[in-house]
Amino acid sequence: MTDDTLAAVGEIAALGRIIPRLTPPDAAEVGAGDDAAVLAAPDGRVVITTDSMVDGPDFRLAWSSPFELGWKAAATNLADIAAMGAVPTALVVALMAPPSTPVALLEGVADGLAAACTALAPGCGVVGGDLASSPTLTIAVTAIGALEGRSPVLRSRARAGDVLAYAGVLGLAAGALRMLFSLAVDAAGAADAARASALRGTHADLLAEQLAPRPPIAAGVIAALAGATAMLDVSDGLLLDAGRIAKASGVVLDLSRGALEPDAAAVVAATGFAEDVAWDLVLAGGEDHGLLATFPSAADVPAGFRVVGRVLAGDATVLLGGKPPSTRTLGWDSFA
Amino acid sequence: MTDDTLAAVGEIAALGRIIPRLTPPDAAEVGAGDDAAVLAAPDGRVVITTDSMVDGPDFRLAWSSPFELGWKAAATNLADIAAMGAVPTALVVALMAPPSTPVALLEGVADGLAAACTALAPGCGVVGGDLASSPTLTIAVTAIGALEGRSPVLRSRARAGDVLAYAGVLGLAAGALRMLFSLAVDAAGAADAARASALRGTHADLLAEQLAPRPPIAAGVIAALAGATAMLDVSDGLLLDAGRIAKASGVVLDLSRGALEPDAAAVVAATGFAEDVAWDLVLAGGEDHGLLATFPSAADVPAGFRVVGRVLAGDATVLLGGKPPSTRTLGWDSFA
């Protein structure tokens, strides 16, 4: 670590330190360093998505390490590619940072981006990017994926009679965030690095669910090969995101309360929260980044997924145990 | 126009107003609204680049209309695709804005993005994006292009004996910025909308070069078809960007002072600046976004380009009339 800042080092020298830390993707035909990169798209299509992380609304430097910021920025975008049934092939990354930012911080972000690609989507890597000045530290990632000749798995093809399945555990990421907001703040309510560090000492695995998530990226292709009829990644809360499949497909999704009990129990065990709080986090917490998919029958549900409900005929509604859910929150809205 | 803000309207309703203003690209197989979009890549490759615009370092709302912000964000990314010899096929756009931002402002940005695609790269459009909260208004664009079976035109293939040519006029964008900084500020030096408006009354065409540039996007493919050996878009100043070709190709680029005299004269005519200031802007001003390319011979230089120099054997140097240039600035660095 050095304390050289972007202002002291300059854009070109900073890029000279950041770019070598990024492993180029296997699909790169022309990598970073020209006006644009060139990526292979062997089946004649690319899947593309973009998602950003902003200092303040999306993260706090007192809670997240630079490595974790890069990891999460990659992981959340990889999950959107996986949710189409595609293999992530490359990221492009726009880093925007105040001139006072240490270059070492951005080196840490780069290391996290590279490590998440290696761990979650081998062969994927950062193929290009942009480094620019901003008052607000921002990581804007665009992810590209390959369908390898398959049809994309959309939100709109769930059919009555399908089963609903999920890959991942619900509620832990939101539980971790709730613990950070209650225990890793100072007397004035501001994010506090020392208290976050203490919380890591007792709840490392839980905090990782929020700060450096490991979405089941490979499960996206597995679901597609198993015949998934619809799929998305649960980022804004189970009820809200299930509602997106229900609306796009014109069906009712009936969630099984029994199937979600292990999630609520896991949240209680990891956080010590009351059971009703845990259920709110499971149903509406957000940032789970697991994959919610529908399959023609229970026999089609592949390893890594578990049945969490069923698809009924009807009009764009989500039920819990056959009834309208009564949860106190309705999922994430950036501006709510 | 309404004064509804993002905070009042919420993310989902705001997207419902923004997305319909964006024309989907011809290449879209799956458009906005799922986890990711799917784009056609008929020749099995995509060209990809990203560039951002940030309130403060890159623009001021007192000087630029929302429409102009969207236009420029699209145009600068389209130029990077063109500089590879590719046809722009799609943009993905991450918009980050304070909760107090009027939705109408983002509608204006969307209109500018759509209009720039229609005008500069017909068939290209916005295929997806992200709307998120940030203290700093930011437009992060990723552009995708198609090579249509051609090889990409890199920076690294210029050869001694080639001629150097340029499509566009140099110095006007930087001249406009200099006028804004001297005449469209208040007594404290802050950007002033009323003074900018007055300056538009007398210098509309000049300000458009800075605020809503029209890079010669179609010239990128024309250059590739004509056999361009190297190409880039001049964004950080002629000397600095020419140096990038010189370095990547391991050659000397010798710029002709006579060939650049019309640019300097155009800057003097448009701004009233002294000739030595105009020359600095031509050589190092930045944000020109024209295409600088090398061709095997003068006979290969296609319509839309003019010869501005020659390529000599030697080591990664840029000369002006055979001598090292003495300019007072060295081009753009985001953190300098």
Order of helices and strands of chain A: HHEEEHEHEEEHHHEHEHHEEE
User: How would the global form of chain A be characterised?
Assistant: globular
Residue runs with pLDDT of under 50 for 5 or more positions of chain A: none
**Cα-atom Rg of chain A, whole angstroms?**
20 Å
Terminal Cα span of chain A? 38 Å
- Give the beta-strand count of chain A: 12
Largest sheet geometry of chain A: 6 strands, mixed
Secondary structure: helix percent of chain A: 25-40%
Kindly report the oligomeric state of this protein.
homodimer
**SSE-based structural type of chain A:** alpha+beta
Please, what is the average pLDDT of chain A? 95
Tally of DSSP helical segments of chain A? 10
What percentage of amino acids of chain A are in beta strands? 15-25%
Question: Biggest interface, which chains?
Answer: A-B, 73 and 73 residues
Q: What is the topology, as strand order, of the major beta sheet of chain A?
A: 8-10-7-11-9-12
Would you write up a description of this structure?
The structure is a homodimer of 336-residue chains. Chain A is an alpha+beta fold. Helices cover 37% and strands 23% of the residues of chain A. Chain A is built from ten helices and twelve strands. The first copy, chain A, has helices at residues 6-9, 11-18, 66-82, 103-120, 172-183, 193-211, 218-225, 238-249, 257-271, 275-284, and strands at residues 28-30, 37-40, 45-54, 87-97, 125-133, 138-146, 163-167, 230-233, 251-255, 291-295, 306-313, 317-320. At the A-B interface, helix 1, helix 2, strand 2, strand 3 and strand 4 of A face helix 1, helix 2, strand 2, strand 3 and strand 4 of B.
